Amino acid sequence: MCGRYVSTRGPEDLARRFEVTEWHAADGPAPSWNVAPTDEVWAVLERAPRGRDGDGEAAGVRRELLPLRWGLVPSWAKDVKAGARMINARVETVHEKPAFRTAFVRRRCLLPADGFYEWQQIKVQDTGRTRKQPYFIHPEDGDVMALAGLYEYWRDPAVQRDDDPAAWLMTCTVITTEATDAAGRVHPRMPLAIGPGHYGDWLDPARRDAEGLRELLTPPAGGRLDARPVSPAVNNVRNNGPELLTPVPPAA
């Protein structure tokens, strides 16, 4: 499960890191230390310009940095409420679930993150009661994580014209896998990150072989993540700021 993450890098930095050719800083989300479902998030994706057939030919494809709504809304959904339940897609079944299988072979993206939060049940010594302790899990070297994601288009039936920007909503989901390394000591699941050497293969819309794509989704090697307990203030989505990442004693 990945229900919250941190994304504070600006679009200029992300565009450079991911070799993006098109982006508009004014259109995107602000830095966030508490990204929550239904928030707008930065996503890196490749697609053909409007009016092309989108068949993935190299000459017509460009790499973009776009704001998407977190929580995938399938094209066939009756309304956007479905997205709140589809913030994650399990790597074991993403290629076959009706909500994700089309996006898996046609619309993949990367979701930049500084790290993510998970919660662990702990016992408070003074009271004997248990509570959920949040942990911030992040790369030891402080580098950006490129979370494997999918995106989808949803057509708002309340808008008459197809060429009206308000007619289309773009949403995304994070692919999760079995947790390893420090993350595995906190929670059994974690978001799956793509290494820089596979960015192009994952984003390429011409790649539509499900089995070949699944081979790119391998669990990360151990020894690369760090986990530290942080304040329960992160539990409230209204709290947002760098202080959320300040380490605290686990039983605080």
From TrEMBL:
Q: Which SUPFAM superfamilies match?
A: BB1717-like
Q: Where is this region: Disordered?
A: 217-252
What is the superkingdom listed in this entry's lineage?
Bacteria
Tell me which Gene3D superfamilies the record gives: SOS response associated peptidase-like
Record EC number: 3.4.-.-
One Pfam family, short name? SRAP
Cross-referenced InterPro entries, in alphabetical order? Answer: SRAP, SRAP-like
Keywords assigned: Covalent protein-DNA linkage, DNA damage, DNA-binding, Hydrolase, Lyase, Protease
Q: Which family does it belong to?
A: Belongs to the SOS response-associated peptidase family.
- What's the name of the protein? Abasic site processing protein
Name the species this protein comes from. Streptomyces anandii
Give the organism's phylogenetic lineage: Bacteria, Bacillati, Actinomycetota, Actinomycetes, Kitasatosporales
